[in-house]
Amino acid sequence: MSATRISQGVTRGGPIEITVDGTPITCFAGETVAAAMLAADHAVFRVDTRGQGRGMFCNMGVCSECLVTLIASGRRVRACLVEARDGMEVATRD
Ligand code: FES
Prior knowledge:
This protein is mainly beta. It is 7% helix and 28% strand. A 5-stranded mixed β-sheet has the order 2-1-7-5-6, with helices on one face. A two-stranded antiparallel ribbon has the order 3-4. It is globular, with a radius of gyration of 13 Å. The N and C termini lie far apart (26 Å).
């Protein structure tokens, strides 16, 4: 796991695993998909119509720059608003 998480004075849920574009990422219950991805140094959340990688901007559900696809449902969701669940599969491309 990346050293980008705060390590002192924080209570976390247990470790869980999600996959992003087929790559397993270990994160913690209660984290958003966006937090899990950033902590794993996965900063590209989607690709725009010009093929440019896009990343988080507002981190509060306003800009939609963090849209990812949940494989199980096919839904496009804002990663900064969705809680990571163990076994969740996420794709950054349609
Ligand atoms: S980062 Fe803006 S909606 Fe998620």
